[in-house]
Amino acid sequence: MDNFSARLLVFRVADAMAAVEATTVREIISSQAATRIPGAPPAVQGLINVRGELVTLLRGHVLLGRSNAADGETVVLIRWGGASVAITVDEVVDLIPTSEVELTTRDDLPGIDPKLVRAVGLHAGRSFLVLDIDALLRPLLAA
Prior knowledge:
Layout: E1 7-13, E2 16-21, E3 25-30, E4 44-50, E5 53-58, H1 60-63, E6 74-80, E7 83-89, E8 91-97, E9 102-104, E10 117-123, E11 126-131, H2 133-141
Parallel strand pairs: 2-11, 5-7
Antiparallel strand pairs: 1-2, 1-8, 3-6, 4-5, 6-7, 9-10, 10-11
């Protein structure tokens, strides 16, 4: 099993529960209007201004292949490749110490590309996907 940082941030996107390592999270903010980028892929909602920094805003439900017409109300800012990337989520659920999470392999994930998932976590009777941020973002943002 992969080595994980001390805590996981768990959030909901449509009907999917997912998590990222807390060390990759810069901050959590309210959703804001994005400036559309012509010709951008469907997962890219646009650009937002976060205290003077232009940040690419991604649609969480599109990234995870969920059919949800609305974009999330909450934005999770992720540090990736020396920059910040924003992802819309419906709700931030918890911040969990990895010592309290049972992690298993990512086999047979219905409706989710297994390449985007590092592990499946179980905490307090609730399961969630631990996302591979690099695999999730690289196809969209690598230049």
